[in-house]
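Standup notes
- HV: blocked on the assembly model, inputs below
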Amino acid sequence: GESVGLHLPTLSVQEGDNSIINCAYSNSASDYFIWYKQESGKGPQFIIDIRSNMDKRQGQRVTVLLNKTVKHLSLQIAATQPGDSAVYFCAEKGHTGNQFYFGTGTSLTVIP
Amino acid sequence: DGGITQSPKYLFRKEGQNVTLSCEQNLNHDAMYWYRQDPGQGLRLIYYSQIVNDFQKGDIAEGYSVSREKKESFPLTVTSAQKNPTAFYLCASSISPRGNSPLHFGNGTRLTVT
């Protein structure tokens, strides 16, 4: 099956700093990627997505970067706030399949 | 508000009993999914349904069953055949199973079997 992994299982940042969460994926045929945020006891919440024909996409305080050469995905959160504390997952989907494959997640802690 | 509702939030059962988890969506999405989440692991797909009266097994379907009689509803039954049923179960939906559209998740049901 697919293998979607994260470089760091935990990340602590000071409030106001920028956060970068990384994700490595194994299937070069994957063409759609999503970042999710999951707070304790809740379901994953969609943050931002990107298609393989793009290298970068920006949302409100978030930016996703896709490097297809090294099969790497990152999520940047600007001016990190305490409410950003959560587990962040990446997910990938191949253009021929109906399934998403999820990474194990990175736990982000924002220090006030 | 449109969304996905899973109930109950917490469920306790004795070993050997079947249990059914509810999932309802009012997003008018065609596709619905069930995932299982265990500590330290990524979400794993149990079953998915692309359209009413049709569903396919995911990676870990053994010991589970589903039905899709209505577009809005996709209940999951955890049977006594599931060897390790204690987990956090997440239901999701998407506009279409094909193409690139994100999954929308409910807030999960935590099942504990003793």
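- HV (later): unblocked. Chain A touches chain B at residues 1, 4, 31-32, 34, 36, 41-46, 49, 51, 89, 91, 93, 98-105 (CB under 8 Å). The CA atoms of residues 69 and 109 of chain A lie 30 Å apart.
- Next: hand off to the docking folks.
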